[in-house]
Recover the amino acids of this structure.
RNA sequence: CGGAGUGUGGCUCAGUUGGUUAGAGCACCUCGUUUGGGACGAGGGGGUCCCCAGUUCGAAUCUGGGCACUCCGACCA
């Protein structure tokens, strides 16, 4: 991709009102654009990052055996009345009437919708389990949207739902998803803690949250450095859990930290299926409710969370996994014979490497500054200095190396 | 929903004891010179001063009401 063609141009100043790192940097670098509080456009660079995040999630979720679908975002009131959540979740749901007076909601989650699909298509234990997921926009009437893209009124999420014949099978799958989540966050480079939390409008049971340790986070969590125990502040406060010692292993190595919640998994038992009449016949012809769970990851929030934990004075520092491009190619005017950026660009593309080529007719300083701001992990420079080689520099380091094009391709593919 | 802050070209801001035709830097357009860390010269275009009402001979500036954004709190997968 040519940088001269990428929309929009980078900004010199962060927006006046921006305070959080993700807000300042993602806006300045041209990844996102704000329509109103909590409502953002993902611009070409931002969308590329979210697509990369989604690709990782998709790959790992597919491994659990789940299948991808796309469910509607416009929901009738009736389906929400089946579980009583039209009233219970009134505060967070966008509810409205059309001109005939019929009532609808914009989707804030899909438990009811998923179960409606399932009950229409299953009769026997042999039809189970079923696990479906999709990537879609969630609408939530947040009392206070904030922190750039971290808490929006609409945002993108991967949500997965599963139903099972028995409790045992349910927990087996739940554990499978938990492991998939850990792989997803690890691949993206996040330091994630699993914490217990209360279920809010979703369930009276405790649920598991996946928390990225970050100063800019709005959650406060406690976790044990010796074992896997963790809980959010609300749970610790409400249940009066002692946090001097770990409730699980009795170790005193309890840490308190600010964190960003990036994923959540909910064991629902049979509460929802009983209310929505999602039953199947077991081996003995007996009617039974399905065991149900749901599992979410906020993919746009993950982009913001990464910026919160990985940036410096100059800009964002992406890693290879979620960077919008593999390399940033900079060409400086050169008189001597050597590599021409055009040739390098074409060669890299031929090898399936995603290149952002800064072909603009502007000063060297401006190119370097934009390069640091956008934060692609590898910078390649072609200039009078580089001759028959290319300058190679990692975003997070000041060291520069000179490699042949062949070697560069080898390194990028390896 | 409570508290605080902010609203002036595309962006960041100055201007406010009320007084010509509202300014700067950046960005943009034209021409030329530049090119290893946000270059330089010359010329040029661009404004419902957030909105509405009021006070006044006269309002970006004063008064009242509203709206928007950011932060803190309440709230929250």
């Amino acid at each position: 991709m040519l940088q001269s063609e990428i929309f929009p141009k980078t900004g010199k100043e962060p927006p006046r009102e921006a305070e959080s790192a993700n807000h300042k940097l993602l806006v300045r670098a041209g990844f996102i654009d704000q329509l109103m509080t909590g409502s953002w456009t993902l611009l070409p660079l931002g969308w590329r990052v979210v697509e990369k995040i989604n690709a990782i999630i998709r790959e790992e979720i597919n491994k659990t055996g789940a299948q991808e679908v796309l469910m509607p975002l416009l929901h009738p009131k009736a389906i929400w009345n089946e579980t009583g959540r039209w009233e219970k979740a009134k505060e967070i749901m966008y509810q409205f009437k059309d001109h005939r007076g019929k009532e609808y909601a914009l989707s804030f989650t899909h438990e009811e919708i998923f179960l409606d699909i399932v009950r229409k298509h299953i009769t026997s234990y042999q039809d189970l389990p079923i696990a479906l997921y999709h990537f879609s926009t969630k609408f939530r009437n947040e009392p206070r949207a904030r922190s750039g893209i971290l808490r929006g009124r609409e945002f993108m999420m991967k949500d997965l739902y599963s139903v099972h014949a028995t409790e045992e099978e349910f927990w087996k799958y739940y554990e499978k998803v938990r492991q998939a989540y850990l792989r997803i966050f690890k691949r993206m480079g996040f330091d994630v803690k699993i914490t217990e939390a209360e279920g809010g409008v979703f369930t009276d049971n405790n649920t598991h949250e996946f928390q990225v340790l970050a100063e800019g986070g709005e959650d406060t969590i406690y976790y044990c450095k010796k074992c896997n125990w963790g809980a959010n502040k609300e749970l610790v406060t409400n249940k009066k859990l002692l946090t001097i010692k770990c409730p699980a292993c009795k170790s005193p190595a309890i840490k308190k930290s600010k964190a960003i919640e990036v994923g959540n998994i909910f064991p629902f038992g049979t509460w929802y299926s009983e209310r929505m009449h999602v039953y199947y016949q077991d081996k003995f012809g007996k009617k039974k409710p399905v065991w149900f769970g749901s599992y979410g990851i906020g993919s746009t929030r993950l982009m913001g969370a990464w910026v919160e934990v990985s940036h410096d004075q100059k800009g964002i520092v992406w890693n290879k996994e979620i960077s919008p491009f593999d390399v940033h190619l900079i060409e400086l005017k050169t008189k001597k014979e050597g590599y021409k950026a055009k040739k390098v660009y074409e060669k890299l593309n031929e090898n399936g490497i995603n290149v952002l080529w800064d072909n603009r007719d502007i000063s060297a300083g401006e190119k370097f500054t934009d390069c640091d701001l956008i934060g692609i992990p590898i910078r390649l420079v072609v200039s009078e200095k580089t001759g028959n080689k290319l300058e190679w520099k990692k975003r997070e380091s000041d060291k520069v190396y000179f490699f042949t094009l062949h070697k560069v391709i080898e390194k990028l593919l390896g």
Notes: The domain at 7-312 of chain A is CATH 3.30.930.10 (BirA Bifunctional Protein; domain 2).
